[in-house]
């Protein structure tokens, strides 16, 4: 008997009936799933321009019986595809969401493996869809969200603020990497433009009434440099003086600074922001200038994690034959999905793709189109499908995840004096 057939039969012997149905359905559609992943890899469409990828995935899901909303909520390369009937929501009829992403880097192609993220999502969705089809009564809904790319990596934040994730009870996704991290901690990040406005010399010789904004930005920069002694080791502040006039003998009307701040917890981000605020205020007071702070991009929040989702994922990934390669980082860079986690219990994992090539490199981009990488993505899709089934058939699992999510949200944000309603625009 062929080795692959033996492995499939061994897995089926330890799966529940629902999981057997999902597993078999996925196995029967492997060629189509790998084909769509390969097509996305070849297209290499950059962020915000993934029109062909959008159309390819939408056509596929429609053919599979999903109800698809194209160009969702006005986002030209986003979609929402749903399958399932009956009242949806909560522990009675959960709506399980899977996340697609399909944009590529203009220079390095799919060096972040987003073609594989789509394969994972579609694999999981087709498995859960089949379980819903064969259920004797409504058990919930499966939703696939296609995310638009964005040059500033804020696509999911923009979609979140427009309500694109509304109605989803659990959101599951897995991204390829050269390491494994089943519980990533995404740091929060803010990027602001600080504008100092001066006061030019009035009529007559009264230089003491002049307020030079160049003095203000120099003082502010020095104040922040002095404050670094009080920064914790995992805080990060980077900035430049962006505008300070163009002629040596002409005082500008204004001067600007561009600063990025990062911190792993909301309370620490609040403290760090207040320290910078005082630096700006002191500079403005000493120089006689006025200042204002303008957000340069959307704020990246810290993510909410649910330990029960992680446990269920690890169990099912192991069941599907995934071997964990733990090279976890203490903190991951800011991620736009973190904002979504404040409203929707979410699992995002980084899984070892089978290559030591680092993300963002040409080497990883080439590997992302290989059969080996496709195989690892199918394994992850199966694991997420099995996890979704564990949620759909167990009210206890769902309640535990909901409770963990709410508890963690309160712990992280209320401790910083931020009401959960301030970070969850959908609720």
From TrEMBL:
Highest taxon listed in the record's lineage: Eukaryota
Originating species: Biomphalaria glabrata
Family according to the record: Belongs to the peptidase M20A family.
Gene Ontology MF, one: dipeptidase activity
Protein name listed in UniProt: Peptidase M20 domain-containing protein 2
């Amino acid at each position: 008997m062929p080795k692959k057939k033996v492995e499939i039969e061994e897995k089926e012997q330890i799966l529940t009936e629902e999981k057997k149905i999902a597993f078999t359905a996925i196995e029967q559609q492997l060629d189509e799933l790998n084909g769509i992943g390969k097509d996305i890899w070849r297209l290499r469409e950059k962020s915000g321009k993934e029109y062909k990828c959008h159309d390819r995935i939408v056509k596929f899901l429609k053919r599979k019986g999903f109800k698809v909303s194209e160009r969702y909520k006005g986002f030209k390369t986003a979609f929402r595809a749903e399958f399932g009937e009956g009242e949806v929501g909560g522990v009675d009829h959960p709506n399980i969401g899977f996340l697609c992403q399909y944009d590529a880097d203009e220079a390095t192609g799919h060096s972040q493996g987003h073609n594989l993220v789509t394969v994972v999502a579609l694999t999981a969705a087709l498995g859960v869809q089949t379980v819903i089809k064969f259920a004797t009564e409504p058990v919930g809904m499966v939703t696939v969200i296609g995310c638009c790319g964005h040059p500033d990596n804020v696509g999911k934040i923009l979609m979140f603020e427009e309500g694109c994730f509304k109605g989803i009870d659990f959101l599951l996704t897995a991204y390829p990497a050269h390491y494994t991290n089943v519980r990533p901690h995404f740091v929060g990040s803010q990027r602001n433009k600080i504008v100092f406005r001066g006061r030019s010399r009035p009529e007559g010789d009264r230089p003491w009434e002049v307020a030079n904004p160049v003095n203000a930005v120099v003082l502010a920069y020095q104040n922040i440099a002095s404050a670094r002694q009080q920064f914790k080791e995992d805080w990060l502040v980077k900035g430049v003086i962006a505008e300070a006039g163009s002629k040596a003998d002409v005082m500008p009307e204004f001067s600007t600074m561009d600063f990025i701040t990062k911190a792993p917890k909301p309370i620490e981000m609040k403290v760090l922001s207040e320290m910078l605020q005082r630096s700006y205020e002191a500079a403005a007071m000493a120089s006689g200038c006025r200042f204002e702070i303008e957000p340069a991009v959307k704020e990246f929040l810290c993510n909410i994690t649910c330990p029960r989702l992680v446990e269920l994922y690890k169990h099912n990934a192991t069941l599907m034959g995934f071997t964990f390669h733990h090279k976890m980082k203490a903190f991951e860079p800011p991620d736009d999905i973190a904002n979504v986690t404040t409203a929707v219990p979410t699992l995002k994992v980084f899984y070892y793709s089978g290559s030591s090539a680092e993300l963002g490199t040409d080497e990883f981009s080439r590997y992302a189109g290989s059969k080996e990488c496709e195989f690892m993505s199918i394994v992850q899709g199966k694991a997420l499908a099995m996890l979704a089934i564990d949620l759909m058939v167990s009210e206890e699992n769902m309640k535990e995840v909901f409770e963990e999510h709410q508890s963690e949200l309160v712990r992280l944000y209320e401790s910083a004096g931020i009401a959960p309603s301030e970070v969850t625009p959908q609720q």
